[in-house]
Inverse folding.
């Protein structure tokens, strides 16, 4: 009986092998067609990245799948296939806040897949400078966290460097307390980036009340420190545990579940419209009563959905601010174009930071112990 079953497994596995061979042949064919399209685009001087076409592919596949193959898996399989095909037309190097295994690195790999090359930078400023100078094609930077709010150093870089936003990615962040031994008693200092330290504030106060915290450049840098010093604990990603051979002390120490960070992909030129886009502006208000109201009125009159507004002080100009505005839609959409033209005439400063495909939204955050 047992050997009958064994034979059946072998024969069904033959079927799987035959399918895998077909998938592989089809993948090779798909890659060569993508390269052919790349050459045609070269001759027409067209951008290689076509977000609208990519979105249409996902929509069609998800519809035809009728939820038979698990949807998230289907999306990530095709994401890897499509990014590989796209990058075969033009290679991309992506700068991120390093060292290896930071959340920015993870977000980069999620966004660009495994076919891109990644370059670790020491600071967010360095990521911007790298892209502005054209040394790397893209950069990925954290811009806001669903619990802690804006990442000010990123917003300030938009005021300093000439780059465009090309995309956004959202990464659900779960923090691990790690150290060399895996024993909480060995930890005399907890190092991490200031954002994760803030995102785990209540947990640290409750479980390590007398242990000081040490803000460092990145979670990767903290993990590196923990690897070099047995008395340093780090708050870091699961990728950092593997990369720096650390032991987990406690998993999931964030104060809120669903804690999500939004990242921006920066480059030299925003992509064309995908049909589900976001447009970011940086504006300065006229010094007159009702200036902000005028801006909001334009958006409301044009039926533009304002997704976010955030102000930042202008360095060296006391009590003067610039505003970051995110709207739903693409600058190629008539409504957004018209709204932006009106804003330009009403603002003391106006800069279009880019239009780019919207990231999928995730469920809302909830307290960790609910
Ligand atoms: C192959 C193309 O180039 C890129 C890759 C795509 C793909 O792999 O399906 C789709 C759109 C483009 O971003 C294309 O434009 O069709």
């Amino acid at each position: 009986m047992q050997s009958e079953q064994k034979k059946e497994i072998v024969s069904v596995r033959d079927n799987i092998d035959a399918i895998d061979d077909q998938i592989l042949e089809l993948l090779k064919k798909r890659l060569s067609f993508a390269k052919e399209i790349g050459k045609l685009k070269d001759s027409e001087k067209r951008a290689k990245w076509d977000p609208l076409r990519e979105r249409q592919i996902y929509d069609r596949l998800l519809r035809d799948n009728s939820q038979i193959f698990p949807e998230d898996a289907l999306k990530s399989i095709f994401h890897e296939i499509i990014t590989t095909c796209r990058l075969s037309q033009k290679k991309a190097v992506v700068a991120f806040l390093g060292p290896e295994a930071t959340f920015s690195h993870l977000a980069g790999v999620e966004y660009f897949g495994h076919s891109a090359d990644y370059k670790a930078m020491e600071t967010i400023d360095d990521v911007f400078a790298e892209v502005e100078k054209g040394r790397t094609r893209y950069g990925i930077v954290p811009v806001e966290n669903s619990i802690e709010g804006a990442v000010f150093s990123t917003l300030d870089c938009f005021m300093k460097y000439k780059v465009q936003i090309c995309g956004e990615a959202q990464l659900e962040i779960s923090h691990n307390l790690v150290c060399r031994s895996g024993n909480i008693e060995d930890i005399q200092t907890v190092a991490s980036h200031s954002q994760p330290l803030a995102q785990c504030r209540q947990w640290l106060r409750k479980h390590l009340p007398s242990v000081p915290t040490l803000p460092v450049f990145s979670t990767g840098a903290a993990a590196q420190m923990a690897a070099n010093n047995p008395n340093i604990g780090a708050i870091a990603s699961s990728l950092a545990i593997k990369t720096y051979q650390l032991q987990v002390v406690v998993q999931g120490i964030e104060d809120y579940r669903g804690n999500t960070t939004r990242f921006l992909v920066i480059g030299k030129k925003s992509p064309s419209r995908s049909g589900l886009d976001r447009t970011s502006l940086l504006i300065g208000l006229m010094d007159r009563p009702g200036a902000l109201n005028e801006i909001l009125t334009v958006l409301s009159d044009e039926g533009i959905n304002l997704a976010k507004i955030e102000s930042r002080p202008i360095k060296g100009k006391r009590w003067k601010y610039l505003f970051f505005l995110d709207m739903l839609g693409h600058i190629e959409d008539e409504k957004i174009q018209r709204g932006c033209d009106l804003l330009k005439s009403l603002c003391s400063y106006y800069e279009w930071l880019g239009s780019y495909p919207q990231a999928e939204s995730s469920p809302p955050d909830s307290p960790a112990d609910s």
